[in-house]
Input
Amino acid sequence: MSDAKEMARFEALAEEAYGAMYDVRPHGAKDCYEDACYNLSRAIGIAKMRGLAADIERLTKRLEHIEAVYNSQFRHVGR
Output
């Protein structure tokens, strides 16, 4: 699999997990959040290995957005 395809696959898995945060029971949101972060981190890792600065920036911003959403909407749910 090419790096571009693998990076896209990890990004798609991250987006799927992010979307699932809204569909699962409150305690399950953390697992979805962690899956999204893991997969975006994998995509960022590939972009870093290949020196793809624009992709690194885009994916890092997306990761930061997901982290902010989780922290503001889900972190304290169910406690």
